[in-house]
Structures are given as C-alpha cells and as structure tokens.
Amino acid sequence: MKPLRIFISSVQKEFAADRIALRDWLRSDALMQRFFEPFLFEDVAAADRRTDEVYLDEIVGCDIYVGLFGDEYGYEDAEGISPTEREFAAATAHHKTRFIFVKGADDFRRHAKMQALIGRVGHELIRRRYASTSELIAGLYAALVHYLESHELIRNGPFDAAPCRNATLADLDDERMATFLHRARRARGFPLPEEATPGELLTHLNLLDDGRPTNAAMLLFGKQPQRFLISSEVKCAHFHGVAVAKPIPSYQVYKGTVFDLVDQAVDFVMSKINLWVGTREAGTAVPVQYEIPREVVAEAIVNAVAHRDYTSNGSVQVMLFADRLEVWNPGALPPSLTLEKLRHPHGSVPFNPQLAEPLYLTKYIERMGTGTGDMIRRCREVGLPEPQFTVSDGFVTTIWRKAGQVTPIQPESQPESQPESQPESIELRVLRLLTKAPLSKSAISSALGQKEISGHLNQVIRVLLNDQTLEYTLPDKPNSRLQQYRLTEKGKLLLGARCK
C-alpha cells in the first residue's frame, strides 16, 4: 500500500518545533510510518516556483491536512489572506480529511483574523486544543488511528487506544480523575478547568472509544485495573546477594493504577537502599541522601510501566540486589531507537502514547525523550557508574549500587569515624526522624525525600500507630490539619534496641 500523504501546516514560525516533532514522530513510530508520509514545507528543495504554488499543489495531492492554529495570523497577501487560511480553504475545497489543532486556551490575545478563522473552523468540524508538543502528538495519534480504523486499514488499534474489554465508565474512579485534573493543571498548565466533568476529561485525553473507556483509561483511572488487565501489576523483590535465589527476604506484588504502581514500586526500593541522615543544624528539615537518587529510581520504574508491552502476559519486575537495581519490562525498543541512542539526546517515541501523555502532564515523566540522559547525568553527579540498558527477553535497566563512592551525610547520632549506615526499613527511618520533636505527616514525607505523601507512608504510619510505637499529638482530632506524630515510650525502647 502506498503511504497516505499528510500535509502539516503551517508556515508560522511559532510552530516550527511542533511541525518538526510531528514529522519525526510520524517517520519513527512503527504504526504511523507504515501508513503515512508527512510533508513539511521546510523539506522542499530550492526551486524556481512561488511558495504559495508549492504548498497549494501539495494540499491538492495530499490525503490528510493537519492545521496548526496559534496566536499569529501571519503574512497577508494582496487580498489580506494569510497562507494558513489559504491552506485551510484549499483543503476544504478539495474535500480533504482535516484535523485542526489550536495551541493554547487563551483566545483573547490572538490576532483578530485568527480568532475569526478559528471560529469559522469550529462551525465546520471538531477542533482540538493542545498546550504542549507531546499533547499535540497524542491528539494526532488518536485521530490517525481512528482514521485508519474508520477506513478499515487496520482492524485493531494500539493497545492503549483500544477499548477495554467488558469495561464501562462505571469502572472508572471519578475521584482519581478529579485528582489528576488538579495535578495536571498545577504541574503543566493543563487547559481544562478543575470543574470539568469526567466525560470532558476523558474526551480531551482521547481515552474513549465510541463511549467506552480505553485500556489507557483503565490503567490511569480504573477502580480495579487488574480486574481487566491482569498482567499490569508490578512485582518487586529484594535479594541480599547478587543473584536470584531463595529465600527471598522481601517480595511484594503491587496493583492499582499506573500512578499507584510507580509510587509503590519506588517506595519499595527507597525503603531498602542505604540512607544517610544529616543534622538539623541548617534548619528544621533533616537532610537525607540515598545511595541512588530517588529521581533515578523513579525514572527507571516509570519508563518500564509507561513503555511496556501490555499485550504480554509478563509483568514489570523490580529486583534489588546487593550490587544493583534491575528493572525489567516485557517490551522492546521502537525501530527508530537503539541502545546507543538512549545514551544521547533522542526523539521520544512512546510505546503507549495515550498512557505516556497523562504521566507527562503530572510530571511523572519530566520531559519527553530525555529520561535516560537525565538518569546517566544524575548517577554521574553522585559518583555512581552509568546505568546500563539491555534488551534480553524484554527491556532491562540496570542501576549499580556503589555506595562506597558516595560521600555520606553523617547521622547526628554517630561520630564521623563510625562505619556507614546499613539499609534501614522505612518504619525505622520514621522513628528516627521523630527522636528530636514531633513532626507532621507532610514533614515526615519531605524528610524521606518524597515529592508528596505516598500511600506506602500512610500505611506505615497506621501500622506504627496500631503497634503503639507512635501516637497523635492531638488524639481527639486525628484528622486535624495541625496533627503531628511523636514517639511513645515503646517506640523509644524499640528504636534504642534496633540502634544497638
């Protein structure tokens, strides 16, 4: 089959980076490159032809027109019409399939003629708004997959865009969607208002297929995602040696949404690796330093969860050994990437783009395509060997534990000549933090190096309260915003015994 030609508008400078990103993605994605060939005016060789003749001829010959509308109207010809408007008119006149994407949510600062054009477009077809290049890619991805399905060029869409079998909207959690909306607005300026309905959110993120939730919707906001997608769980194991061997000292299987899976798996690793605790000399917050930076652990795990092959029966495995951390996922690199390219700046080619975009919007993924480079840089900064990336019956990220190369922060309770600390459980670390004074849950979370209070920490505090090693400072008001936690006599005795 001859590839379908996609004309990517426009010639406006404000879209230069977006156009190039779309072109590179269309040419690197395994599904997209099979069916589509993008056209950019920047790729045209010098010729003795008028510019408007070139792009109008291309529109006549293309199959799909992708229009990018922004703040500027652009250069106006003798009739006061810009190239963007000429392009759209030509695509309309020749009955081309048109996908229009409007950048930004603030229409008041747009050129008056651009506002008028956007208004006219809105009466003819559905347009999508976007705030970032990654959101633009996700939106076009969903539109093109729908195009292929409606034209019966493919029978089934990619995993994350396919409807979740036997699932209904009742299987999604409205509270999780409201939380996501709040976080995405705060983190990335997500354009939907906080009062947006679940239906509006799911539609904006392209997580519905004919009114049914997609697999991505279930993984992101499902009440019980593993009820429908059994292998989406994450298995975590801790071994004292350097090989998989029984007995396994610690083994957990985590379930929940992709956000839950990442949080729980990261907490599992951070609770097992070495931690150095400083003093309060510089302030009330206790400085802490882990042998592996938390952001490196999080990047490895979120990559495994976001880019794995969910059609496989295998689950993501997080294995901590005495000398390394291994994160394995059932997946492979896309054709456009190699193991060597991962070590250098490269384009982002998400295996599950509808899953990756919400993770980006909530800052689980910082910048698309830079994660592996950030991991390498951070490991270098703390004196660790560079992470290794291998493909062996799946994709494996290996982060080496070389704690002796890291300069430890000396605990306030031990002299500098004392050997470095051994791995401590999160329960013991919570008790240590409360030796000087009571702390709130948010202060404990911050001292442990967490971005926010995790479900694991909530569980640990509940266990310590039930064991009567901790107690409330306001026992009559357990849910008070002023609530803090302090050691009981039993907790002090337990801490003293564990420290001997």
Structural commentary:
This protein is of the alpha/beta class. It folds into 4 domains: 4-154, Rossmann fold, CATH 3.40.50.450; 160-228, no CATH class; 232-405, 2-Layer Sandwich (Heat Shock Protein 90); 426-499, Orthogonal Bundle (Arc Repressor Mutant, subunit A). The protein is 38% helix and 15% strand. It is built from 18 helices and 17 strands. The strands form 5 sheets. A 6-stranded mixed beta sheet has the order 9-8-12-13-15-14, covered by helices on one side. Strand 14 and strand 15 form a beta hairpin. Helix 6 (133-150) packs antiparallel against helix 13 (353-361) and helix 12 packs antiparallel against helix 14 (371-381).
First-last Cα distance: 73 Å
Instruction: List segments where confidence is low: pLDDT < 50 over at least 5 consecutive residues.
Output: 404-423
Strand content: 5-15%
Structural class, by secondary structure, is alpha/beta
What spatial form do the alpha-carbon principal axes imply? elongated
Largest sheet: 6 strands, mixed
How many beta-strand runs? 17
Radius of gyration: 26 Å
What is the CATH domain class of the largest domain? Alpha Beta
H/I helix tally:
18
Q: What fold name stands as the CATH topology of the largest domain?
A: Heat Shock Protein 90
Q: Do you know the CATH architecture of the largest domain?
A: 2-Layer Sandwich
> What's the assembly state of these chains?
single chain
Whole-number tally of structural domains: 4
Strand line-up across the major sheet: 9-8-12-13-15-14
Indicate the percent of residues in helices: 25-40%
Quick check: average pLDDT?
Answer: 84
